Amino acid sequence: MKAVKTLLVRRVREVLYVLASLPILVGLFVFAMIGFSSGSFVPLAVLIFLFLLSSMQKVSEWEIRRANFMLGTDFPITENWFRHPFFSWDGAKERITSIRSWMAIIYIFIGFFWSLIAFVLVVTGLSGVLVILGVVGVIAFSNFSRTFEVVDAGEKFVGSIRFIADSGQIRLEFGESNAEGVVIDSGVLSWNLDSYPGLAIGILLTILAILLIPRIARATAQLVDGFLSGSLLPQFENFLKKFKGRRQVSEREVREAMDKESLQPKLSELSNREREILALMAQGKSNAGIAKSLYITEGSVEKHISNILSKLELKAGDENHRRVLAVLTYLGIKPIDQIDAEPSEKEDQ
Question: In Å, how far are 45, 118, 228 from 141, measured between CA atoms?
Answer without folding.
Answer: 52, 26, 44
